[in-house]
């Protein structure tokens, strides 16, 4: 105790001595001033919170607000997550259905390819059979064309009846309202409203097509180049005509006697095939590719020309179809 007190006294004396040794000008500055004295208080949170109940209440309300906001956000996120999961499930279901449909379509496509290949093989077989015996076959006019040459038939004005009017280019014939005053010509057909084509056939295989959709009545076929032009003419093979007829929605082959034909569909385009050496003239309905009739005449030994007839008061026009590569 004495030692401690003595130490304290010694320190005090040393401080006093030091203070005394300072210059007088600094002694005033080193002395503490009431204005410079700051009271520092220690902060105790527990004591302050307990001391200020409103602050405590505010903190509690703020914490509750944060928890509630977090809970609400969590609920919305859960709801959105549930909706996304539902949408994801629906998309997976749709994807599965699409895959199933895709598989079915692939299966159907494979079956159609097999059927198409089978059908193509059957067509190739039929085409081969047709080529080996096309002369005796009455079907497939488009395949028949492979063995015939297309001819660009043009109407001959010198042979046209006075009641017929030819188009510019001589590819269409129409019934006129009145007979024309035409110069006399030994080639002109005066007894029937007929006209011949310019083409003359003495050999080969030929075909051409005629549009008959605008004609209510007509005769189509082939005739000898030297058929009668004057007087009463009957269109039949004995007189040098090989033709078929359409009249009031009935169809006839002009043989002796005439024979009525039964067609499944009214033709709007007729194709005529001439096999000169084979002595055959065939007619086809190009709407349904059906065979109409075939004349088997035998070798002709005379020149032949295309033959066209209209019926006054019933017919409108006949048009020769353009033929590719004619």
From TrEMBL:
It is a single-pass membrane protein. Pfam families: PRY (PF13765), SPRY (PF00622). Its main location: membrane. The keyword Cell division does not apply. It is found in: Membrane. Residues 1-20 are annotated as: Disordered. Residues 1-16 have a biased composition (Polar residues). It comes from the Eukaryota. Residues 133-326 form the B30.2/SPRY domain. Keywords: Coiled coil, Disulfide bond, Glycoprotein. The keyword NADP does not apply. Residues 74-122 form a coiled coil. InterPro entries: B30.2/SPRY, B30.2/SPRY_sf, Butyrophylin_SPRY, ConA-like_dom_sf, PRY, SPRY/PRY_BTN1/2, SPRY_dom, TRIM/RBCC. This is Butyrophilin subfamily 1 member A1-like isoform X3. It comes from Acinonyx jubatus. The gene is LOC128315662.
């Amino acid at each position: 105790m004495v030692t401690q007190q003595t130490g304290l006294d010694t320190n005090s004396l040393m401080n006093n001595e030091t203070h005394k040794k300072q210059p007088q000008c600094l002694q005033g500055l080193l002395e503490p001033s009431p204005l410079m004295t700051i009271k520092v208080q220690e902060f105790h949170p527990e004591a302050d919170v307990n001391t200020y109940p409103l602050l405590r209440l505010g903190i509690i309300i703020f914490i509750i607000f944060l928890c509630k906001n977090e809970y609400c956000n969590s609920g919305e996120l859960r709801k959105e997550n549930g909706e996304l999961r539902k949408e994801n499930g629906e998309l997976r279901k749709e994807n599965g259905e699409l895959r199933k449909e895709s598989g079915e379509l692939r299966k159907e496509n494979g079956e159609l390819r097999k059927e198409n290949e089978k059908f193509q093989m059957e067509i190739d077989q039929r085409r081969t059979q047709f080529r080996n015996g096309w002369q005796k076959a009455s079907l497939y006019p488009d395949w028949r064309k492979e063995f015939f040459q297309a001819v660009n038939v043009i109407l001959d004005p010198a042979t046209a009846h006075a009641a017929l009017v030819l188009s510019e280019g001589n590819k269409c014939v129409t019934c006129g309202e009145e007979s024309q005053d035409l110069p006399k010509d030994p080639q002109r057909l005066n007894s029937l409203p007929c006209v011949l084509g310019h083409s003359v056939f003495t050999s080969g295989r030929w075909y051409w097509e005629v549009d008959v959709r605008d004609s209510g009545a007509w005769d189509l076929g082939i005739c000898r180049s030297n058929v009668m032009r004057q007087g009463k003419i009957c269109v039949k093979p004995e007189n040098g005509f090989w033709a078929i007829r359409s009249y009031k929605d009935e169809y006839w082959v002009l043989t002796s006697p005439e024979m009525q034909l039964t067609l499944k569909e009214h033709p709007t385009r007729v194709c005529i095939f001439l096999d000169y050496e084979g002595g055959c003239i065939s007619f086809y309905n190009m709407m349904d590719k059906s065979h109409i009739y075939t004349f088997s005449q035998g070798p002709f030994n005379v020149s032949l020309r295309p033959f066209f007839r209209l019926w006054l008061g019933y017919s409108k026009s006949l048009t020769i179809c353009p033929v590719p590569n004619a």
